Amino acid sequence: MKKIINEQELNEAVNGHDVCVCKYGANWCGPCRMIEKSIKNIEDANIDSAEFLEVNVDEADEDFITKTGIRNIPVLQFYKNGVLADKTVGVISEQELINKIKELKEE
Predict the structure, then answer these.
(1) Which residue out of 13, 29, 73, 75 is catalytically annotated?
(2) Which of 49, 50, 68, 96 is 20 to 30 Å apart from 82, CA to CA?
(3) Which of these, 83, 94, 107, 81, lies nearest to 16 by C-alpha position?
(4) Residue 17 — very low, low, confident or very high, per pLDDT cuts 50/70/90?
(5) Is 32 in the active site?
(6) pLDDT in tens, 33-50
(7) Distances from the Cα of 94 to the Cαs of 37, 55, 99, in angstroms?
(8) Cα angle value 28/11/7 (rounded, 5°)
(9) 74: cis peptide before it, omega within 30°?
(10) What angle do CA 46, 72, 17 make, to 5 degrees?
């Protein structure tokens, strides 16, 4: 997972990829670690060719986090061709994550 700390890095990362998933979380957040495990499983199994990004809300630029409007974590933002296409708040299962990626790839 590529670490992102500001809006410019996010924009550069999502452009040029068919599907990107950006996880907003923190090291101390148990549900964030659960989603991170699912992402690692997907990456290790090479199930989908989505690009995975990570924003640690404790380490990222404060203005960037404020601008995103994210108030609760974990949050997954799904980008299709550089455009925000979907968002989830809270934990989703590994299979739900795989399904969302597949849906975006089929659009």
Answers:
(1) 29
(2) 96
(3) 81
(4) confident
(5) yes
(6) 999 999 999 888 766 578
(7) 9, 19, 9
(8) 50
(9) yes
(10) 35
